[in-house]
Every structure is written in C-alpha cells, then in structure tokens.
Amino acid sequence: MKIRIISSREEINSLRPNERAVHVAFRASNVDYLNLLQKVPRLQMIQVPPSYMKTMSKAVEVFLDMQGIKLLQGDVWGHRKDLDEYFTIEDAIIEEIRSSATSGSSMDDVASQFQLKAKLSTDLIKYLASARIPA
Fold it and tell me: I need a labelling partner for 16 at 20 to 30 A (CA). Which of 4, 10, 34, 52 fits?
C-alpha cells in the first residue's frame, strides 16, 4: 500500500485522481480538505499528525465521515519526501497485521505488536487490519 505524502497545499493540485490514501503533513484548512476531495474523488483514507488533529474543524471530520473517508491520526516515521513522495507499507506487513487480527487478538494488542516493528501509527494499523483494501 502506498500513502501519498502532501507537504503543502500547492501539492494538492499535483495529485492523481486515483490516489486512495494520503498523509497531510501540513496544517490544512477546511478549504484544503474540500480541494483534496475534489481532486481525488476515490480517496479512502486521510492520515493527519496528532498535533494537527487537535486543531482540526469538527465540520471537516463530519464531512469526511459522510463521504466515507477514514480520518486517522498518525505520523510517517523515518520517511524522506525528497527521496520518494510515497510512504510504502509492504504487502507482507499488511498480511501479518491482518492475520494477527483474524487470529483472535484484540485490535489494541495487534496495534501494540506492530507499532514499533512496522513504524506505523496505531490508527493506521487498526485501519489496515479491518479495511477491504488489496495488500
């Protein structure tokens, strides 16, 4: 799975319409989220850093929920955007997360198990465990 990193509002215009997951690495306004949804109609997930999530408008959260877009809190650890504009999660990691989740472990146990191993946020691990996205 690839997550497109967006570092500025100017990058929204350069997004491809077939993107499924993005990480917003700047403090986006309500208008930025609306522009994002117009540019990327097939969007399924938006990840926002915890500090930005605290200041996010409740109206945007409700609007994204109405559109069926999952809003996750988390960071992309160790990623250098100057090398690649995508943060890639290996298929093997996704399969491990899903198999752990289906084996009867609680979602919190699965999240804590893979948080350091895969350097993923708790919300993202829970999303990967339950989402119907191809690995």
Answer: 52
Q: Cβ(40)–Cβ(17) under 8 Å?
A: yes
How far, in Å, CA of 119 to CA of 102, rounded?
A: 21
* Six token digits for residue 47: 């990840």
Q: How many CA atoms lie within 13 A of 33 on its CB side?
A: 23
Query: What is the number of domains present in the chain?
Result: 2
Q: Are residues 4 and 47 in the same domain?
A: yes
Integer Cα distance of 48 and 75 in angstroms: 7
Token pair listed for 31 = 């208008």
User: Rounded distance, CA 60 to CA 87, Å?
Assistant: 24
Q: Hey, which residues does 22 pair with through a beta bridge?
A: 4, 46
User: What tens digit of pLDDT does each residue of 27-64 get?
Assistant: 999 999 999 999 999 999 999 999 998 889 999 999 99
pTM, to two decimals: 0.87
Tell me the HSE value of 3 on the side-chain side, using a 13 A CA sphere: 26
Q: What is the DSSP string of 24-89?
A: E-S---HHHHHHHHHH-TT--EEEE-HHHHTTS-HHHHHHHHHTT-EEEE---TT--TTT-SEEE-
